[in-house]
Structures are given as C-alpha cells and as structure tokens.
Design goal:
Strand content of chain A: under 5%
Low-confidence stretches of chain A: none
Shape of chain B: elongated
Shape of chain A: globular
Number of strands of chain B: 0
CATH superfamily of chain A: Amino acid/polyamine transporter I
Distance between the termini of chain B: 74 Å
Mean pLDDT of chain B: 78
CATH class of chain A: Mainly Alpha
Number of helices of chain B: 3
Number of strands of chain A: 0
Oligomer: heterodimer
Mean pLDDT of chain A: 90
Low-confidence stretches of chain B: 1-8
C-alpha cells in the first residue's frame, strides 16, 4: 500500500507530505468497524486538547494553586475549580471547530478577517505575554531542580537544549507523543494527596455545600480568583490548540474526537488543580502568614508535614509543569508568527527548511532561560505583568474567537449554537467584571476593607 | 486480508485529489481569505473592545505608577 501512494505523497511539500501520511492512516482507520477500531481512531486523533490543558497547569499555575490552598484552604476553591471545568472546555472547544473547519490558525484568522491592526495587536500581546510566561516557566524549572541539588544555570541550559531539540528534530506525530509523555508527569500531584496527614474527605465534600470564603471578599480574594481564572483560560491556549489542530490535520469529521480530547484534558487539568489545592489546603493553610508564603516556603512546609519524598515529587511536578508549558508556549509563538506573516509553518518541517518558523520560539526560550539567571531580576514584578497583559488580552482574544465562531461565511453549519454563545458571553462578562474589580482594588486599595 | 478490502473500498487511486481536498492537505497560504465586513453588531463589538482596552490601559498605568 505504501508503494502505491509513495509517488503521490512525494509530490507534496514536505510538511504537508508528513501530515498526509498521518491522515492516510486516519482515513484507512475510519473505514474499519468495531469498538477497537473506533478506540484506535480516537487515540490517533486526540492530543491537542489534552496537551493544551495539561500545559495550562504550568509552573505559574502550580504555584497559583499551591498559594490558593495555602491562603484560602479548600472551603471555596475546590467547588470553584469544578466550575472552571466547563469554562475551560467551552472556550477551548471553539478552537477545535475553528481549526478543523478553516485549516488556519487563530493569528491568521484575526489578521486576514479583521485586518492588520487587530492582527498586529493580537500578535504583539501574545508574543509579549508568551515571553513573560516563559520566564515564569523557567522559574518553576530552576526552583524545582534546586530541590534535587541542580544549579539554576545547569537546569536552565538543559531545559533550553531539551525544548529546542523537541521542537526542531521531531515531526508533529512524534512531537505530540513525546510532549504527552512529559505531560503525564503532571499527574504526580494526584497520588501526593494520599501523603497528606489527617486528610478529611468529609471536609472536602462539605466545601461543596458551604463555599466558605475565609476572611470574606477582599482584594486578595479577588486577586486569587483572577489568578485562578487566568491559569484556567489564557490567550496562548486559544492560539496553541487551534494551530495544533491545524498542524495535526484535523478536519470537520474529527470534530467529535477533538471535543472528547478537549473534555479529557479539561477533566485531568481540574483534577490536578484540585489535588494541589487539597495538598496545601491541608498542610499549609494553618501556617502563620500563609498569604506571604512563596513556593519555597510552601515546599519546605510540605516536606516537614508530608516527608521529603512528597516534597521531591512536588518539585518534580513543578519542573514538569514548567517544561511542558515551555514546549507548548514556544510552539504557539512560532505558529502565530508563521500564520501572521504567511510563512510555511509546521512542526513537520525539517530544521533547515523551517528555520524562520522555529526561530521565534527558540529565541523566546533562550531569552527566558537567560533572564531567569540574572541576579535580582524583579520576578514578582514580571509575574504581575504577565497577569495584567493576559487579563487585558483575554477578553479581546475571546471576542475575536466569538466573532469567528459566529461567522457563517467561514464556519457554515459549524457556527456556535445559542447555548455556546450565552456560555461564552457569561465567561467573558465574568472575566471583565473581575478585571474591573481588581483594577479598582489597585486604585483604591481599601475599597473592600 | 483486511488491508486489500480497505484499499478497494477507499480507492484512493481514483479519488486522490478528493482525498487531498477533504483532508485539508492544501497550501492554505495560497488560498486567499476574504476580509470580514465590519457592520451591525460586529461594529459595536469593536468599539466596545477599543473602549475596554483604553480603560484597562489607564488602570494599568495608574496601578504601575503606584507600585514605583
């Protein structure tokens, strides 16, 4: 069979040729009947959804969840995180349909449908937010590796080499499975829950009925809500999943599998987030000055209460979170630049042929890997800036997503249904409300007491 | 055994072009995408976005000026 199509495949450009090989397998799988064949087809089509959701539990996300549990315990934020599951799914599912129907990335769609100004605006915001987020990923990687006695220089350089090699030398199919294998380490936080001393599942269950906010609504509470919302839905996720769907070659017939993929990813993401909140909610919450604890303090409390093995597993999870997010974010940078400027763009491209496509992602990784090593760099300020840019940009990115998903000219029968629009508008409205409230607390710090 | 059956059924020798088209294996850089018409509620959405960005930028400037 391979011989029959070899000549035809050879006529295609190299990036499309490799995608065609994968699609040929999918095409043949689809002809078979039975549950096993259907499962094989699903396994061949899943990837972007799980990857984006697990990468979203990045180093910044792990730190945010850990601090959330440490500051507010489990009372409010466990049920809140359950609410985040449909939020993440509804937002990301739209990118699957948009990518599968148009075969174009998010940056390209904004640029070509709404003009250069909005295209540049979106691209600039994405690139700046991505670079700053990458710095936080490298903070996670270096902090986590320090627990194992590895110096920040060695861990940063190693991470840059590993990420660059994964981006440059693998074709999309292998890149996705290697990335998913790294992402699997994100699950390390789940068994850690069973290391927690005096864990009361009754208290976890009770949180769903009480929704208790320790200390009531305050500026800190609004900040933590916004931070958790920001770690659940982020602009790079929209760009990443849509580009990934396009590079994988999903079509309208694969939308259902893409939806299953996104749902599985959302569930895994929320379970991991809840596990981290439970760990710090039960071990760190009662500590003095919990609001002022940084991740090193939290790790040391985890070590004293759950043992050094648990602390090392937590640190390993932090390193993995930084690594997988750095792979995904740098890929989203490369894809977005390629889409905006019309370059040939695919993870399938060999390094020399696709050097201009890989360059933006690689430069951003090297920049972040270097910045994290500068002594006395204002990391807290950088983290705040990431949050601010992401918060401002997210409603804008969501608006473009909604405009495109309601555009019958490009989406045809796959336009948003009314419930999808209503849900998305509620999410955008809530995000803007929290942004506005947080802005007010910055300008008037004592507004909530 | 199954393989032969599948190849016959798919018959990509005859439908190769259709396979390429259906699977989206085209160079989309070469296929132009028409600019959207900005009118009605889309125009309102864009104005809303401009105002939102302006308000947020003002808030950010005030916020950062208080940090330093």
């Amino acid at each position: 069979m391979k011989e029959d199509y070899k000549n035809k495949l050879d006529e295609l450009p190299v990036d499309i040729k490799l995608r065609a090989v994968d699609r040929l397998k999918v095409h043949l799988m689809r002809q078979k009947y039975g549950y096993f064949s259907r499962l094989c087809l699903l396994l061949a089509l899943i990837g972007p959804g799980i990857l984006v959701m697990i990468a979203d539990n990045d180093a910044g996300g792990v730190i945010t969840y850990a601090q959330t549990g440490a500051i507010f315990g489990i009372g409010f934020f466990i049920p809140f995180m359950i609410l985040m599951l449909p939020v993440a799914y509804i937002v990301q599912e739209m990118t699957v349909r948009l990518g599968a129907v148009t075969h174009r990335g998010h940056a390209e769609m904004i640029w070509k449908r709404y003009g250069k100004f909005w295209g540049l605006f979106s691209l600039f915001d994405l690139i700046v937010a991505n670079i700053l987020t990458l710095i936080t990923e490298f903070i996670g990687i270096t902090l986590g590796m320090e627990v194992f006695g590895v110096s920040p220089v060695i861990s940063s350089v190693t991470a840059v080499v590993v990420i660059a090699s994964i981006q440059l030398f693998l074709r999309y199919f292998t890149w996705e499975w290697i990335s998913l294998s790294i992402a699997a380490f994100n699950l390390v936080f789940i068994p850690l829950v069973f290391f927690v001393p005096h864990l009361h599942w009754g208290a976890v269950a009770k949180s769903f009925t009480s929704w208790h906010i320790p200390g009531g609504v305050s500026s800190l509470f609004i900040y933590v809500i916004l931070a958790n919302l920001g770690t659940t839905i982020a602009p790079w996720m929209l760009f990443f999943q849509q580009s990934s769907v396009v590079d994988k070659g999903l079509t309208v017939r694969d939308i259902r599998d893409g939806q299953i993929d996104t749902f599985i990813g959302s569930v895994v993401m929320i379970i991991v987030a809840i596990a981290i909140i439970i760990i710090t909610g039960f071990t760190v919450y009662s500590a003095n000055n919990a609001a002022k604890l940084d991740i090193q303090n939290i790790l040391s409390i985890v070590s004293s209460k759950m043992g050094p093995l648990a602390m090392k597993l937590f640190a390993l999870g932090l390193v993995e979170a930084g690594l997988i997010a750095a792979i995904a974010i740098s890929a989203s940078t490369s894809w977005a630049m390629g889409e905006a400027f019309g370059w040939t763009r695919s993870i399938n491209l060999p390094p020399l042929k696709g050097w201009h496509f890989y360059l933006p992602g690689l430069v951003s990784i090297m920049f972040a890997g270097t910045v994290v090593l500068i002594p006395n760099v204002p990391l807290g300020f950088l983290n705040l800036t990431v949050q601010v840019i992401a918060s401002i940009f997210m409603p804008a990115a969501m608006m473009f997503l909604l405009l495109l998903l309601n555009d019958k000219e490009i989406m045809g029968v796959h336009v948003n249904r009314p419930w999808q629009n209503i849900s998305a508008f509620i999410i955008v409205g809530f995000l803007m409300l929290m942004n506005g409230l947080y802005g007010l607390t910055v300008m008037f710090p004592h507004i909530f007491g | 055994m199954n393989e032969n059956k599948i190849i016959k059924k798919v018959n990509l020798d005859e439908d190769w072009e259709e396979f390429i088209k259906n699977e989206g294996l085209l160079d989309y850089n070469k296929i132009p995408l028409k600019r959207a018409k900005i009118r009605g509620w889309i125009k309102i959405a864009f104005w809303f976005l401009r105002i939102y960005i302006l308000i947020m930028v003002i808030m950010v400037i005030i916020g950062f000026s208080r940090i330093h």
